[in-house]
Amino acid sequence: MKKKRVNGKEGVTLVEVLVAITVLGIVTAALGGSLVVSNRINSRSEQIIKDRLAVSSAVETLMAKGIHDTTDTTSDDDLEVKIDTTSDSTCYKVTVKSKDGEVSVETYIRPADTT
Q1: Is pLDDT above 50 for 1?
Q2: Which pairs count as long-range contacts for 103-111, CB under 8 Å and 24+ apart, including other chains?
Q3: pLDDT grade, residue 66 (50/70/90)?
Q4: Structure pTM?
Q5: Which domain holds residue 88?
Q6: Which one of 16, 27, 63, 103 is most buried, by most CB atoms within 10 A?
Q7: DSSP the chain
Q8: What does the alpha-carbon distance between residue 88 and residue 32 come to, in Å, rounded to a whole number?
Q9: 61: in domain
Q10: Is residue 4, in this structure, part of any structural domain at all?
């Protein structure tokens, strides 16, 4: 059986193939760029969550152990903890920051009555 030609056209031209490849390349580049940006945002979000958990844990530890009459600035591997007395000396101002400074908590802790 012979195939009949319709208006002398058969198959795909080289120009059509090149246009299809160009469109496919543009779509692939856009999707690849989106994946790269998404990966960067995801890794940054994970770091912020880790920093928030570490800062929260440090504040809770200070509150649970209590703060004595010492004021100091301590530095952990990931955190910077600064303890100051307030003007009326009834509580302590505690500032805990992550090393990159992205996450910071400032709170006041009143020492437990020892009487």
Answers
A1: yes
A2: 103/48, 103/51, 103/52, 103/55, 104/55, 105/55, 105/56, 105/59, 107/59, 109/62, 109/63, 109/67, 111/66, 111/67, 111/68, 111/69
A3: low
A4: 0.56
A5: 14-109
A6: 103
A7: -PPPPBTTB-S--HHHHHHHHHHHHHHHHHHHHHHHHHHHHHHHHHHHHHHHHHHHHHHHHHHHH---S---EEE-SSEEEEEEE-TTSSSEEEEEEETTSS-EEEEEEPPPP--
A8: 58
A9: yes
A10: no
CB atoms within 10 A of CB 78: 15
Cβ atoms of residues 107 and 92 within 8 Å: no
Tell me, what's the pLDDT at 34? 95
Residue 57 lies in a domain: yes
Number of structural domains the chain divides into: 1
Q: Decide if 112 contacts 92 (C-beta within 8 A).
A: no
Separation between Cα atoms, residue 73 and residue 32, nearest integer Å:
46
* Residue 42, both tokens: 């995801």
